[in-house]
Amino acid sequence: MAVLPIRIMGDPVLHSPADPVGEITDEIRTLVADMHETMDVAPGVGLAAPQVGVGLRIYVYSYVDDDENPWRGEIINPVLWMAPLEPGSPDPDLESEGCLSFPGERFPLRRSERVLVTGADLNGDDVRIEVDGWRARIMQHEFDHLDGILYVDRLDDGDWKTVQKIARKRGWGRPGVSWLPGVDDLEG
């Protein structure tokens, strides 16, 4: 397996809808294994193929809850259904998230509390994932990547301006910028 470079917010692959996966080949299986390794080294709780420069509808996820219950997998060609969003402002302590494509920062973002995701696994078998809470947040965040949306695109105006300042200061708003987990230090 290999750790892959993660694209930063200005890269065009992050802002374009990803293509569906046709056949699940050995190349797709290797990509998924590499994505798991990259996510683990980063460290992160999810990683979408566009984040590693591959415009395909695939993401991986890994999360351990407060009771130490592990949850890990991948989904190919996912379809997402969400419960209606609760109105109001996000709680900065409970609803903040970050992104490996905008590393080192976290911003509050309201997400749906419950989701259903369907798709396929690496064997081509149907997958159905019904989750709530933080797991639902992970599913929505990674699914957004497949539609060319970064979580910073969903922030309110004040936080969006802060994101733009950070991106300019760090030189992240241009194509081709990436970082390699376990090697690069992108903290400010």
From TrEMBL:
E.C. designation(s): 3.5.1.88
Active site: E142
Gene Ontology MF annotations: metal ion binding; peptide deformylase activity
Cofactor binding note of this UniProt entry: Binds 1 Fe(2+) ion.
Binding locations of Fe cation: C99, H141, H145
Assigned keywords, A-Z: Hydrolase, Iron, Metal-binding, Protein biosynthesis
Gene3D superfamilies membership: Peptide deformylase (3.90.45.10)
SUPFAM superfamilies linked: Peptide deformylase
One of the protein's GO biological processes: translation
Record function comment: Removes the formyl group from the N-terminal Met of newly synthesized proteins. Requires at least a dipeptide for an efficient rate of reaction. N-terminal L-methionine is a prerequisite for activity but the enzyme has broad specificity at other positions.
Family assignment from sequence similarity: Belongs to the polypeptide deformylase family.
Name of the protein: Peptide deformylase
Organism in which the protein naturally occurs: Microbacterium azadirachtae
Lineage of the species this protein comes from: Bacteria, Bacillati, Actinomycetota, Actinomycetes, Micrococcales
